[in-house]
Specification:
F-box domain-containing protein, 4-stranded antiparallel β-sheet, Monooxygenase, ubl conjugation pathway, globular, 34 strands, mainly beta
């Protein structure tokens, strides 16, 4: 009689197996079945497969690690397949009487399958209201009273359940996400050109850039002034916070004024006569920029090349050096390349991982490495792309052709490979003029569909997740 492996030996062997192999092993006999159910085996499979999804926390609830793995695998399978009715339900959500200017999720991007999962988005509109929507139910949760002016900017703090808005007159307000009650307000002397929500280790704060080129740092939720810094004289300023909120990039588009990088801590603890710690990057005529999401301080900037009129993309690493007095910003250029002269100037730019840049030019989506190697080019849309959304798993594009396109990253390759999967279609071209925005969480996709009469509606695509199916495991 051949010797049989005991539970401890089986557990060691099973630790090298993938999920599908474990499911097969569970069919052998009672002992194999019990060992294959071991909590630590499935926990390690979950951590291995989704370790890079920083924005998506694993929430077990009453589930086991195996149930979590199977449920999340099924959800990803459905989001990659995109079969109408079978994989997702589409709903049109109306309510605003004007056009929707901004869209953001209030709910946290948690993957949970314990019956508590819920997707909630917030919108601001030219009808001067702020509204929250239940994406799965397709219903309005709350609407603010009509504001003094059209509300044009929006950011959210999902962890704190707060919404921050700005209107055309420069009035900034904080709202409670669960009921829409106003928490605080702050008035700018002119309208805001950008808002950035920052969840800093020393406490959350809000950055506001005004149309006159002034950068404000405000506490959250009280909206008390921390600092006021003139960045660019009389120029609308755009802002980007680094993934760890330690750096703030400020630029004014197509200006000969070089973009600036601020050390965040100096904006929060600004002394009366001391300017914040910053540096001006050695590039001019900046048009777009983005941070590398997998790096704490890697910045990619698109700008005009000094020696020609062609566009270039330069990648820098930022650091803080602390001499005896104060802090110095250290900028190290690590890569730069010229965009093809046949390429129309890109109007959208995002980063993926630490090495990949996504650019949208007209109706084309193009991927480059930071060294300039073109990885892929997609021409799936018939009209210009209006919005680009990127995370560790997927890429979404919205277009005036009244469709959203879903792409999926291949996680098995060292160099990321993006696969074009399917279109999500909007309503009738008779009534709609195209999609203007797209956002997503782990279980839904929401687009803003502009109407030909000047209003907008939301179109939600909620992916079915009923149970963890073995057939969806890969």
């Amino acid at each position: 009689m051949e010797p049989r492996l005991g539970p401890h030996e089986l557990l060691h062997v099973f630790s090298f197996l993938e999920a599908r192999d474990l499911l097969c092993a569970a069919q052998v006999d009672k002992v194999w079945n019990e060992v294959s159910m071991t909590k630590e085996l499935w926990r390690q499979l979950c951590l291995r497969r989704w370790s890079s999804c920083k924005g998506s926390q694993m929430t077990l609830g009453a589930q086991t690690w195996k149930q979590y793995y199977l449920c999340r695998s099924e959800l990803e399978f459905r989001m990659e397949s995109g079969r109408p009715e079978k994989d997702f339900i589409c709903k049109a959500i109306a309510g605003h009487e004007g056009g929707i200017d901004e869209l953001a999720y209030i709910s946290t991007n948690e993957c949970r399958f314990d019956g508590q999962e819920k997707s909630v988005v917030c919108t601001v509109s030219s009808d001067s209201t702020v509204r929250a929507w239940d994406v799965q139910e397709g219903t309005e949760i709350w609407s603010s009273p009509q504001q003094p002016a059209a509300v044009v900017n929006l950011v959210t703090y999902p962890r704190l359940q707060l919404v921050v808005t700005a209107d055309k007159q420069g009035l900034i307000k904080v709202w409670k996400a669960e009921n829409g009650r106003e928490r605080a307000s702050f008035s700018l002397p002119t309208f805001s050109s950008a808002l950035q929500a920052c969840d800093h280790p020393e406490g959350p704060f809000l950055l506001v850039a005004s149309a006159e080129g002034v950068l404000y740092a405000l506490t959250v939720p009280q909206l008390q002034l921390l600092s006021r810094t003139r960045v660019f004289p009389s120029s609308p300023t755009s802002l980007l916070c680094s993934p760890d909120c330690q750096w703030v990039f400020a630029s004014t588009q197509d200006s000969d004024l070089g973009p600036k990088v601020f050390y965040t801590r100096s904006l929060l603890c600004l002394l009366e006569d001391d300017p914040p710690v910053s540096t001006t990057l050695p590039v001019r005529l900046t048009s777009r920029a983005c941070w590398a999401p997998d790096e704490t301080a890697r910045l990619m900037v698109m700008h005009r090349n000094r020696n020609s009129t062609r566009l270039a993309v330069t990648t820098c690493e930022l650091g803080a050096r602390q001499p005896r007095e104060g802090v110095d910003v250290v900028v190290q250029q690590i890569a730069s390349f010229l965009l093809p002269d046949t390429m129309m100037p890109p109007h959208l730019m995002k980063g993926h991982g630490s090495q990949v840049i996504l650019l949208v030019s007209g109706s084309e989506l193009v991927l480059f490495t930071i060294q300039g190697l073109q990885l892929a080019a997609f021409q799936d849309h018939q009209k210009p792309i209006t919005s680009l959304w990127v995370d560790q798993s997927r890429v979404l594009t919205a277009s005036f052709d009244l469709s959203l396109r879903v792409y999926v990253w291949n996680k098995e390759n060292k160099i990321p490979v993006l696969k074009s999967c399917y279109h999500l279609l909007g309503g009738s071209h008779r009534w709609a003029s195209g999609f203007t925005h797209v956002e997503s969480d782990c279980m839904s996709i929401v687009g803003v569909e502009a109407r030909s009469i000047g209003t907008s509606i939301l179109r939600s695509y909620c992916f079915n997740m009923q149970h963890g199916s073995d057939d969806c495991v890969n």
